[in-house]
Design a protein that fits this description.
Blueprint lengths: L7 H6 E3 L5 E4 L12 H7 L2 E3 L2 H11 L4
Antiparallel strand pairs: 1-2, 2-3
GO cellular component, one term: cytosolic large ribosomal subunit
InterPro entries: Ribosomal_bL35, Ribosomal_bL35-like, Ribosomal_bL35_CS, Ribosomal_bL35_sf
Keywords: Ribonucleoprotein, Ribosomal protein
Length: about 70
């Protein structure tokens, strides 16, 4: 059986934490930032965790687990 390939776009967007969770970047931080407050932009710059509902799809794209 051939090896499973990792999704190239997923490996650029997600990273695995030490505890096994998957980190992601927040949306709405790419352009048209002049109308956004500094506080909102600062809070969007931090990473978030992938929700439990999406965890299966992301793990499949990253070939983590079964």
């Amino acid at each position: 059986m051939p090896k499973m390939k990792t999704n190239s776009s997923a490996k650029k967007r997600f990273s695995l934490t030490g505890t096994g969770k998957i980190a992601r970047k927040n949306a709405y931080k790419s352009h048209i930032l002049t109308k956004m407050s500094t506080k909102r932009k600062r809070n969007l710059s931090h990473t978030s965790m992938v929700s439990d509902a999406d965890m299966g799809n992301v793990k499949r794209m990253l070939c983590i687990g079964k």
